[in-house]
Specification:
Elements (H helix, E strand, L loop, with lengths): L9 E2 H8 L3 H9 L6 E2 L5 E3 L1 H15 L4 H29 L5
């Protein structure tokens, strides 16, 4: 079940007001594949509360001098580590319960 924070219902203007980012900055982060809004039938971008939090985090990293490429690179590395941990955990659980694939 998804949380209300996952619902993409917020327009770019409201996101801009909430984050202090310009609409252009928000679109730039989308172009850089850091944020993924959905599009309504009228092609309006829609964001979630999680997206708003993510944009604030991105803006803080940019302010600290971290570039968008470095943000993506770090996130990919973290995702890879998490996937490796999950595979290892599944293997340990399978071994403990003698589950064979």
């Amino acid at each position: 079940m998804s949380s209300y924070k996952d619902n993409k219902v917020i327009t770019i203007g409201v996101v801009s007001e909430l984050t202090g980012l310009s609409e252009r900055q928000i679109r730039y982060y989308e172009e850089r594949k850091l944020i993924f809004p959905i599009r309504s039938n009228g092609k309006t971008r829609k964001y979630s509360f999680n997206d708003v939090e993510r944009l604030v985090d991105i803006a803080n990293k940019i302010e600290d001098g971290i570039g968008t490429f470095e943000i993506l690179k770090t996130e990919k590395k973290e995702k890879s580590k998490e996937e490796t941990r999950n595979r290892m955990l599944r293997g340990q659980i399978n071994a403990a319960f003698k589950i064979r694939k």
